[in-house]
Amino acid sequence: MKTVYISMLGVATLLGGCGGEDGVFDSLKPRASVFYYNQITSNGAADQNALTVDFYVEADDDDSALNQGYSRDDDADELEVRIDDNEDNNSVSLRGESQTGATLFTERARFTNESTYTAVSYGDTSVGGVKLGVFQQDISDVPTGTARFRVINTVDPVQYNRFGIALRYNSDQTPFADELRVGEATDYQTMNSGLLNLVVADSEEDPEEVLDRVDCTLSGGKAYDVILAFEDPLNLPTNAGDVDGELVLYCHEQDEP
Question: N or C: which terminus of the chain has fewer CB atoms within 10 Å of its end residue's CB?
């Protein structure tokens, strides 16, 4: 058998041939993943082109989702950035621009190595600023036959002259979220797989004022980001009595562990 010797210089040459700084060592650096959803509304706008966003996530490198219109049922593409291995130095910049190049929102967040995040832009351009919510995903295993979900609220009750939202299962009279604000997420909930049927109510009214009923289907063994949104982003209800039939759930399967 012939013994082959490779010098350290040879190893360095081989690694350098893989792209140097952008090669083997760089590819082994920790990464974080982001899934972006655009729920920006513009009440009274002529068409949905006014809602289109170019979304950028930047750390040691960057990724982007360009020309993202109003998000509906489709799951987002995965965006990846390399981050520093030191958790004290993994600040990430997230920003969104309109199709005219105007800045819609900017946000800085600290990402944990090898973790996954959901980013959701929300707000109505006709009444105020646009904001971005960033939520870390729980990507631990989900038992077979059950589904895990949280609800991210992009519905601002101010649009229809109310203050907060309460959420409960249609089969349960007790809310699992009793004062949910726009841009907030509920705690994770676990249910049997199948139809997720929720009642959306005014958090301030007693007895309960039901605003709308919304649903979607969750598969067993999966985790979901469930986004509560306006169905028509250009024509929002301005009275609580007009909300019925105007809300929707967009259920997005989270990244698998």
Answer: N
Helix-, strand-, coil-residue percentages of the chain, each rounded to 5: 10, 45, 45
Confidence (pTM): 0.88
Per the CB < 8 A criterion, the answer to whether 230 and 41 are in contact is yes
Mean pLDDT estimate for the chain = 89
CA-nearest of 96, 86, 139 to 116 is 139
Angle at 132 between CA 119 and CA 247, to 5 degrees: 80
Report the distance separating Cα 237 and Cα 43, nearest Å: 9
Strand 91-97 relative to strand 103-110: parallel, antiparallel, unpaired? antiparallel
| CA separation for the pair 236, 68 (Å, rounded) | 20
C-alpha 109/C-alpha 97 separation (Å) is: 18
- The 8-class DSSP code of residue 25 comes to H
Alpha helices in the chain (DSSP H): 8-16, 24-27
